[in-house]
Structures are given as C-alpha cells and as structure tokens.
C-alpha cells in the first residue's frame, strides 16, 4: 500500500455561531477551517471542495476559502443543493488523493440562517456580509415532474410525511405507534446532541415532550410535529482536511482517520416514478454498496435524520432494533439542520469517535426527497485494499407504473399526508394514488373540510391508515384536486 496514495483525515472541526449573532456563513466556515488544520498545512491545499451554501449567495466559497488560507488550489468545487454532498465531496477528495491528483484537500460547509433572521430588516451587506452573487436560475426539472410539482409535492415537509405514512401502513402500525417510535428516536438523538459542543439546541427531551403537540410544537404535516422536523435556522459550519498518510507522517500528525471510500446511489427525481413509498431503493442500495466495501461491520453508523422516516428505513434495512441510535452528531432537530452541510458535521463527529477508540464508522448523507444517497466509510486503520470508494453515483431507472394526466376519476390511495395551518388544524391534503387503469397520479386539496377527512384523526374505528382507501378527484389546473374521501 502506497502511503502517498492512502487518503486520511488529519483534521476536522465544527463551530457554532452565537445565538443572536449576525456573522455570515463564510466567516463561520473560515473559523472551522482554521480550527481544523495548521496554517502551513492549509496553505498546501491543492483541492477545495465546498458544500453549497443556501443561506447566502456566494460566487465561490471554495475560491474564497483558498484565498483566505493562502492556497492556490488546482481543483475547486462548489456543490449544488443537496444534503448528500458532504459525503460525496469527501469521497471525491479521497479519490483524488488515491489517484495522485491531490496532496491536500479541504472539504468545507456552513450556514447562517439564524443570523439572517437576527438581522431582520437590516441589509446584510451593510452589516459586513460579502456582497451577494447572482443566484443560479431555478430549475424546476431538478425537483420533479410537472405533475408532482402541480400537486404541491415539492416541499420536504410534505414529501417525507408521505413516505412516513406509507411506511406506517406497510408495517401494520397504528398512527400512535408510529408517532411514539419517532418520538423515542428523536428523544435519544437529543441526548447525543446534548454531548456535542456544536449543537444548536443541546437540551435533552423526553419522548413525551417530542410527541406532544403544543403551540411551540405544532403539527406540521401529519404525523410530524415540529420537534421531528429538521431545524434549518442555525449558524453552524464544519471543515475536514484530507491528505495522504505520507504527508500526515511527515507532519507528525498524531491521529488520522482513514477514508476507506464510499458509494452513492441516486433515485429518479420524480416522486411519481418511484417504485414505492414505504421503502427507498436508493437508500438500501447505497448502504449495501458501502458496507460491501468494509472489511468490518462499522461500530458507529450516523444516518441522516431530516425526518424520522430516514433513520427508520435505514435501521429496518440494516436489521437493527427500532431503538438503535444511528448518530454521533445529534440529529437535525436537536443538533441542528444546517441545510446542505449537516453530514460534514457527522464526519467531524466520526473522526473524533475514531480517535477515542471506535474501530470504523459509516456516515450516510441524504439529499432531495429521499433522492440522492451517499455513504462513506472511515476507519482507525488502513483498508486492506487501500481506497475502495467511488464518488460517482449509480443512477436508478424509473420503476413506477406510469403517470396519468389529471382527470375526473377515483384514486386508490398509496400514500397521503395532511398539512396543518399555523393557526392549527388541517388546511391542505396531498395524495399519491392509482387510477382504475393502474397508473399513478398525485392530487391535493386546500379545502379544509376535505383535508380533515384525510387526517389521521378522522380514521374510522379499527382502521389504521388511509392507504388503500379511495378518494374522488377532478381535473384541475395542472393537477388533480381531491373532492371527497370515499
């Protein structure tokens, strides 16, 4: 094994901004970078890979980080939107080291959405923020089909609730049993976050506190209360320094984490072209592909947790108990959900756990609507075969039954959710179902009376789910509209 082509993490750091602070994302990122590595090492960076920043528009975070540390990187990347990018970029950095294309790489990411809110009506530029760059044009095709978007199934709060409700039905659970499972998971995650100094909300919560709807913990999309939704209004940043084992030895670095490699799988973007909603082909295939490359079963598994259905699906696929705590970070609801860069914090946490004696770790990252999956493996020792990853994802083909045009018809419900208004109570409903011809269609309603019929609270006695029931729809402008639950 050539030490000059053995990728290792030699430094990793994460920072949290002050509550009520108004520092911009780039400032937090640079704090993390400088905490992650010595100046002489940072200045040698020939690769800078930046997770896309959502809370501010920059021309190139990668270029600005390189300039700030005195480096002249030959390879620079600023990723698009997606929570999978931290793992995919780390895999790319390791692949470049293994190929001899790079000697020192920085992977960085950060957000300051809380600072944006703290500024209120003040101009961020007048407050010292970098003048914004022109944001990239909105590409609707990158988020789903016209039918999916017309039916309102773009927002993650709605889409992940649709997956959750189908999973509950497939497992034969009651709505209460499924909600209790989510509450236990997120209460356990809060305990992990309480031990993480970079956590935004480090308070330990009980399952009862997580599950109970209140004014501060309102129902968002059934069955998800606010306490199990990702919390994006945070100021957090992370940075990871990747180099070769040879360089690490030359520098006398005491602790390294070996980047064994990873695997990525991308599902079709269109939700209506998916094969099912109570499972994720991409997530399962990604975990399998990553674990197949590991010489040992990782003792630490950190799974993305923007909504409970993601760690639930991962635990079920891995054959783990339902009370398994798949996080070293603390979860999006308690640690914080810094939009695209959460999993870079998970890499920092895994690096620290490996230093403290853990043998191997798997960090999973999820992007889109259970669309983009990537997982990376890290170990205390070198992999017997060196770097075994692949930053280029495998892409799945559509597996759905075909999509129907909006029409006056009945749909057999495959999955559904009800969105509550901020004042409380059902306001809208979203349904994915099958037409009598077996095609798939999406429908919605903003009639509160119809939405109430699809609420979990309106299930008939002895019925556990709306899955399998029928709804009547009529053709609307671009999407079918639910008019009645049959």
Secondary structure topology:
Blueprint lengths: L6 E10 L8 H12 L2 H4 L4 E4 L10 H8 L6 E4 L6 H14 L5 E9 H7 L26 H5 L5 H16 L3 H20 L12 H5 L7 E3 L2 E2 L9 E10 H7 L5 E10 L14 H12 L7 E3 L6 H10 L12 H5 L6 H14 L4 E8 L4 E8 L14 E2 L13 E12 L5 E9 L5 E6 L2 H6 L16 E6 L4 E6 L1
Parallel strand pairs: 2-3, 2-4, 8-12, 9-10, 15-17
Antiparallel strand pairs: 1-7, 1-8, 4-7, 5-6, 8-11, 10-11, 13-14, 13-16, 14-15, 16-17
Helix pairs in contact: 1-3
User: How would you sum up the major sheet?
Assistant: 10 strands, mixed
Structural class by secondary-structure content: alpha/beta
- CATH homologous superfamily grouping of the largest domain: Thiolase/Chalcone synthase
- CATH class category of the largest domain: Alpha Beta
The number of strands is 17
Sequence stretches where pLDDT stays below 50 over 5 or more residues = none
Instruction: State mean pLDDT (0 to 100 scale).
Output: 96
Ends apart, CA distance between termini = 65 Å
Number of helices: 15
What proportion of the residues is helical, as a percent range? 25-40%
Task: Give the DSSP E fraction (strand runs of 2 or more residues).
Answer: 15-25%
Tell me the domain tally. Answer: 2
CATH fold naming of the largest domain: Peroxisomal Thiolase, Chain A, domain 1
Q: What's the architecture of the largest domain in CATH terms?
A: 3-Layer(aba) Sandwich
Shape: globular
Mind telling me the C-alpha Rg?
A: 23 Å
């Amino acid at each position: 094994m050539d030490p000059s082509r053995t990728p290792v993490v030699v430094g990793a750091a994460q920072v949290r901004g002050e509550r009520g602070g108004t520092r911009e994302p780039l400032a937090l990122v640079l704090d993390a970078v400088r905490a992650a590595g010595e100046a002489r090492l940072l200045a040698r960076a020939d690769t800078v890979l930046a997770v896309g920043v959502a809370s501010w528009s920059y021309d190139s975070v990668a270029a600005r980080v390189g300039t700030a540390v005195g480096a002249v990187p030959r390879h620079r990347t600023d990723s698009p939107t997606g929570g999978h990018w931290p793992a995919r970029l780390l895999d790319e950095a390791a692949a470049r080291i293994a190929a001899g294309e790079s000697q020192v790489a920085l992977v960085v990411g950060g957000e300051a959405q809380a600072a944006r809110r703290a500024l209120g009506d003040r101009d961020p530029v007048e407050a010292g923020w970098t003048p914004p760059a022109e944001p990239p044009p909105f590409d609707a095709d990158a988020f789903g089909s016209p039918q999916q978007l017309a039916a309102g199934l773009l927002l993650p709060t709605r889409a992940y609730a649709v997956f959750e409700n189908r999973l509950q039905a497939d497992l034969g659970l009651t709505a209460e049993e499924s909600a209790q499972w989510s509450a236990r998971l997120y209460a356990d995650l809060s305990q992990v976050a309480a031990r993480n100094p970079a956590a935004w909300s480090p308070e330990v919560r009980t399952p009862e506190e997580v599950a109970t709807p209140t004014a501060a913990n309102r129902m968002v999309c059934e069955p998800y209360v606010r306490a199990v939704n990702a919390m994006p209004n945070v100021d957090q940043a992370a940075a990871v320094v990747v180099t070769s084992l040879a360089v690490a030895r030359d520098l006398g670095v005491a602790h390294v984490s070996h980047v064994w490699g990873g695997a990525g799988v991308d599902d079709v973007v269109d939700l209506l072209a998916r094969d099912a909603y109570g499972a994720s082909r991409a997530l399962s295939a990604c975990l399998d592909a990553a674990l197949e490359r590991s010489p040992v079963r990782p003792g630490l598994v950190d799974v993305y947790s923007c909504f409970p259905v993601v760690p639930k699906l991962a635990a079920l696929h891995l054959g783990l108990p339902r009370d398994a705590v798949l996080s070293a970070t603390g979860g999006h609801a308690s640690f914080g959900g810094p939009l695209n860069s959460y999993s870079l914090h998970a890499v920092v946490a895994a690096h620290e756990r490996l230093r403290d004696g853990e043998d191997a770790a798997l960090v999973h990252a999820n992007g889109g609507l259970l669309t983009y999956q990537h997982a990376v493996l890290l170990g205390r020792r070198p992999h017997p075969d060196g770097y075994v990853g692949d930053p280029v994802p495998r892409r799945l083909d559509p597996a759905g039954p075909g999509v129907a045009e909006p029409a006056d018809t009945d749909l057999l419900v495959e999955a559904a959710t009800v969105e509550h208004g901020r004042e409380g109570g059902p306001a809208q409903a979203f349904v994915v179902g099958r037409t009598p011809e077996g095609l798939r269609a999406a429908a919605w309603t903003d009639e509160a009376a119809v939405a109430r019929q699809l609420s979990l609270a309106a299930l008939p006695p002895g019925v556990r789910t709306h899955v399998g029931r029928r709804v009547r729809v009529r053709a609307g402008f671009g999407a079918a509209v639910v008019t009645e639950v049959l």
